[in-house]
Amino acid sequence: VVLLQVGETLNKRRALTQQILKGVTLPQLMFLPIAVMLIWLGLTRGILSLNRLQMSVMQRNENDLSNLSVNEMPEEVQPLVRSFNNILSRLRRNVALQKRFLADTAHQIKTPLAGLKAQAELALNTKNPLQRQESLEHISSSADRAARLVSQLIALARTEYMQKTGAD
């Protein structure tokens, strides 16, 4: 039987370990700052388009409901811009409906008030007590119609508010 033993000193093992670590660690330490800088540049450039989008939205007038330009945005941001434009389109429609509703409401309120004024002037200018009584009755009924119209508008506003907020 032959017994062959090979030995190495601990100093040689430590030296070999240090040599391996230097061979691996030094190139990585040199590569790490370059990698961090490249990542930082890539993120900065990628976020630049989002910053432009943010600035274009923030610089808008509160009455500007026009669509944002999709063509100027990178492909990754275009679905977000399209969704935002969709919201702006719905908002423009709602604003137009509200404006039309307010114009119609103003007309509906103006009519009974004009009748009230005409009947009041008639009552003031007439000497006939029977005609004055008739004018006062017209004033009363016109005031009731105006009050009913205002009550309906308030009820409508409350209903819409409750539907939008989900309040009970």
List its salient traits:
single chain; 168 residues; mainly alpha; 3 helices; rod-shaped
Task: Show the helix and strand layout.
Elements: H1 10-58, H2 78-125, H3 129-165
For the biggest sheet, the summary is: none
Structural class of the helix and strand makeup?
mainly alpha
N- and C-termini, Cα separation: 97 Å
Average pLDDT level: 85
Q: Identify the overall geometry.
A: rod-shaped
Stretches where pLDDT is under 50 for at least 5 consecutive residues are none
Short description:
With 168 residues, the protein is mainly alpha-helical. The protein is built from three helices and no strands.
Task: Provide a descriptive summary of the structure in words.
Helix 2 runs antiparallel to helix 3. The protein has 3 helices and no strands. By secondary structure, it is mainly alpha-helical.
